[in-house]
Amino acid sequence: MRPPSVDKLARSLAHTGLPHPLLVEIARESIASGSVETVAERAEVNAASRSRALLQPVINATGTLLHTNLGRAPWPSSTQAAFSNLEFDLATGQRGSRQRHVGTLFAQLCETEAAIIVNNCAAAVTLVTAALASGRDVAVSRGELVEIGGGFRVPEVIEQSGARLHEVGTTNRTRAADFERAVASSDVDVAMAMLVHQSNYKIVGFTQSVRPADLADLGVPVVCDIGSGLLDAACPWLAGGPPVWLVDEPAAKQTLAAGADLVCFSGDKLLGGPQAGIIAGRADLVAACAAHPLARAFRPGGLVLQSMQALAFSYLERDGDAIPFWRMAARNVTDLRTRATSYQVGEVVDMSSVPGGGTLPTVEIPSAGVALDGDLTSALRSHQPPIIARVNDDRTFVDLRTVDPTDDPTLRSALQSAVAP
Ligand SMILES: *Cc1c(COP(=O)(O)O)cnc(C)c1O
Questions:
Q1: CA distances (Å), origin 285, targets 177, 221, 280, 288, 396
Q2: Of ligand 1's atoms, which has the minimum distance to the CA of residue 123?
């Protein structure tokens, strides 16, 4: 038996949707790596594994609402090809600012003077520190020298910005007086105070921390990195008001109202949008950030800004249902149980979803889903589209809170095939 031609084998893999040059590569490797008899099967396996390594939509059945590995907040992508007035002022016909359209909307939502959008919250904090404190000291509580996943460490970010970290207080207790002493000291040159939300951990017991209102008279800008991106603690976009699991999560609007000069937060955590970072607050400080050379490196593209504008509209309309993250967060457990029952596979179980994304580390949200015997996670991952589930004690758990109801038929038939011998 002669090996098939590379081209013929590549063309037989066209159904995978991979571009032809990749299929040619796969065909070559498959021919070279074993017997002629099984080359067709090998090529299929290689093409499938190549497809799985590419970026694609997945069904998140983990119950982790903001799953860092699955892109945090779900957000639709737009495919329409079009120019936009990204940096064009339609009123004057002159070059405009890409920050003005959307920045203004977020300033309004935060009830503050100004806002700009950058690539993520890490970029926001880096830019603020570079613009306001380069060559000078940044006062931060020893209890807030946070590391967020993915290598974001507050001390290193400050150092990278060309500023010096000046630690105040202790690990468990920091008071306003600690900040005041640093500002008054002739040994340090405090340019700003930074309060960092302990997003992914908690210090409990004999503790005390400083709130923005405590630093109102500090005399230097107070910058709050709230990370999570909750816009307004009152959640006016949810018919039922703030869910109980939000507990004491800091919100941008209230943090600014309490006296913070700037807040930094993520676009794709509790804000529920695409990956982005927002800097909002005093107009002169936001302008200093926008004018800093790093702002050019951290600026988002038009696709992100369009998404952020759509998100801002939903918040202005108080339409939480239009925001995929809040839609899934607000699903009631009874509906989830009804959906789980309709699957008619496995056992309907009550579960606990978690917010995830390095937010609200101790919070659980009541949920429901399906439990199946055995570890089916690998089989489910190889499904098209891939399904990501959890396994515990040799049982597979599918949490329906994070699954869009439009995916129910797909998920249901995938589970039924996975349990069939
Ligand atoms: C998540 C988080 C960040 C990093 O945000 P990204 O948008 O992922 O860059 C920074 N600070 C705090 C407090 C956070 O919770």
A1: 24, 9, 9, 5, 50
A2: 9
